[in-house]
Write a structure and sequence with these properties.
The chain is an all-alpha fold. It has helices spanning 10-46, 50-60, 65-75. It starts with 9 loop residues before the first helix and ends with a helix.
């Protein structure tokens, strides 16, 4: 009998297709996650409010007490 050579593989072809989609979906998700992880770390510092930045600059000695007081007054 000739028949169809792949007639008995129907369920395995479906299973293989699902695995193929999951594999490439996982690869795409991994790339997106890696890219977003890098940008989220940079945006955390951007989310600091201005007074926190001024406090950090004052603590590092980048600005003096008069400048800090002026910044604090301007932001209030």
């Amino acid at each position: 009998m000739m028949g169809f050579p792949f007639a008995g593989m129907g369920i395995w072809m479906i299973f293989g297709s699902i695995l193929f989609i999951l594999f490439w979906g996982g690869i795409i998700w991994l790339i997106v996650w890696a890219v977003r992880k890098g940008t989220v770390q940079n945006s955390v510092s951007a989310n600091q409010n201005a007074l926190d930045v001024a406090r950090a600059r004052y603590a590092r000695g980048e600005i003096n007490s008069d400048q800090f007081a002026q910044i604090k007054k301007d932001l209030s």
